[in-house]
Amino acid sequence: MISTNFGTKGTGRDNPTSTHPKLNVGCGRRFHSEWVNIDLESNHAAVTKCNVTNGLPFAADHFEAVYHSHLLEHLTPEQGKRLNDECFRVLQPGGVLRIVIPDLERIARLYLQMHQRAWDGDETASEKYTWIKLELLDQMVRHQSGGMMGRYMASLDTTQESFVRSRIGAELDICRKSNNHGDTQSAPKNLFKNWMGSWRDRFSRLVLKQLMGKEALRSYDETMFRLKGEIHRWMYDRYSLRELCEGCGFVEFRVCAAEESDIDSFNQYKLDTDGRRIFKPDSLFIECRKPRCNRNIKDAARQSA
To answer: Does residue 113 sit in the same domain as residue 207?
Structure first.
């Protein structure tokens, strides 16, 4: 929720065996060594650096399954469409696409429910309303790493912790750790240190400040932050996601639980759940298929819809 780099690092333990290639797109730190794992940055030998907005560097009809989790919302609608087109291209006929995203429908329903209860004077609902409004808006509008959600979690009262944890699961602990147990001032500095470390950026900021002033410099810093991939550029519910997938040619679209999958041995890879907990319980989980007939499949899918 807070950063595309948050997650749980793959360990390679309890490995199922498979000879069929599977692709994890934008894997972050949650991946499995038996999958092909790609991400914008790589901090592990099992992850290949790849900018997915430039397409997927694989042959057509190659993978039996493609998975991406909490990636789509960080792309514009146009980029999301291109990504799913690429997922369609690299999947084998009959292959499964599994997508995990924040569930806009559930967030909106909770927002309206807690809004009404808070309006009616329910103090418990008032605190839940505060969180769910942050969950709805903050990651789309923030201009510093962690945003208002990070500051809220750093000072979270124990009475509200269970509700927030029911929404974002173990990510609560990860986000607290990233904020250095309440040091909200360090988060923007840590996020910016790589690009500010280069002489070109330091020089650009100095020139911009001298020519245009502090306000222009703040705008520059905000723009650089928003290009780092932390913000949400779009949100989906089950209807709009079905429209996207079917528009790319996929069929058999279905909403499923975190533990359900048509991907062989999926739960053993521990990408969405470790058997005891769901890593991102606020999510919408869906699967769909590339049609088994590989001729004019997009046209056939549109006609059947």
So the answer is: yes
Strand partners, 101: 284
pLDDT recorded at residue 4: 32
> Does residue 251 fall inside a structural domain?
yes
- Tracing tokens 């909200």 back to the chain, one arrives at 184
- Residue 119 and residue 84 share a domain: no
Looking at per-residue pLDDT, the higher value among 120 and 177 belongs to: 120
The predicted pLDDT at position 19 comes to 54
pLDDT at 174: 79
Cβ distance 80 to 213 under 8 Å?
Answer: no
**Average pLDDT value over all residues in the chain:** 85
Residue 223 clears pLDDT 50, i.e. is over it: yes
Residue that terminates a domain, selected from 207, 226, 245 = 226
CA-to-CA distance for 303 and 298, rounded, in angstroms? 9
Q: Where are the alpha helices (DSSP H) in 120-257?
A: 123-141, 147-154, 158-168, 171-178, 186-196, 199-212, 214-226, 238-247
- 115 shares its domain with 204: yes
Q: Quote the number of domains for the chain.
A: 2
Q: Which of 186, 201, 226 is the last residue of a domain?
A: 226
Q: What are the C-alpha distances in Å from 242 to residues 110, 206, 237, 296, 305? A: 22, 47, 8, 20, 11
**Cβ(37)–Cβ(28) below 8 Å:** no
